[in-house]
Design brief:
By secondary structure, the protein is an all-alpha fold. The protein contains 5 helices and no strands. It starts with a helix and ends in a 6-residue tail after the last helix.
């Protein structure tokens, strides 16, 4: 029963935060909050991607030359910084990732 209370609590909090934007359409955030919200997508994406690059097995740090996740991630960051093109970043990162996995003999074929 404790799990159900937890689920219902999360449901209530999620509903309240999302509904509040519809309930109060004239709500305006102060400039400092708006500036801080500008960085949320970057922070969330970083929190999702970086652990995958640095902990590919989920347990051990992998600061090695044969870590295709880390090397392809760094190349994707460079492509994004140079081109500012999302499709080029995704395609270049995936191409480098699979090429490195093939070169390191890590592809499950």
């Amino acid at each position: 029963m404790e799990n159900w209370w937890l689920i219902l609590g999360m449901l209530a909090i999620t509903f309240a935060t999302r509904y509040s934007l519809f309930a109060f359409p004239d709500l305006r955030f102060p400039p400092l909050i708006r500036q801080g919200l500008h960085y949320v997508p970057t922070a969330v994406l970083t929190a999702i991607v970086v652990p995958g690059m640095l902990l590919p097995d989920g347990q051990h740090w992998a600061f090695r030359v044969d870590n295709a996740y880390l090397l392809a991630g760094l190349v994707a960051i460079a492509i994004a910084a140079l081109t500012r093109h999302l499709l080029a970043t995704i395609a270049g990162g995936l191409l480098v990732f699979f090429a490195l996995r093939w070169m390191f003999g890590q592809l499950p074929i």
